[in-house]
């Protein structure tokens, strides 16, 4: 089970080190801190909107997940700084990761 194979199925899982318990981002097979093996952790991860911009009717946000790493995500409704969100949709399109939050 790899991060990309799960993401391509629409599953948002976070790699976490089995040794030191650090969240590893960008996703890797081994921890960049202790070189321990990582495993994928599932859940309803909450994030906080740090910044956002708008293009036409779409909003794009920088979201900090688990106080650890940031992703860029699309949002349908107007976001607010520090708003708590969860990943509602994710995947890979044309070789690029995509995330949507609510």
From TrEMBL:
<dbReference type="InterPro" id="IPR012340">
    <property type="entry name" value="NA-bd_OB-fold"/>
</dbReference>
<protein>
    <submittedName>
        <fullName>Rubredoxin-like zinc ribbon domain protein</fullName>
    </submittedName>
</protein>
<dbReference type="Pfam" id="PF12172">
    <property type="entry name" value="zf-ChsH2"/>
</dbReference>
<feature type="domain" description="ChsH2 rubredoxin-like zinc ribbon">
    <location>
        <begin position="8"/>
        <end position="37"/>
    </location>
</feature>
<dbReference type="InterPro" id="IPR022002">
    <property type="entry name" value="ChsH2_Znr"/>
</dbReference>
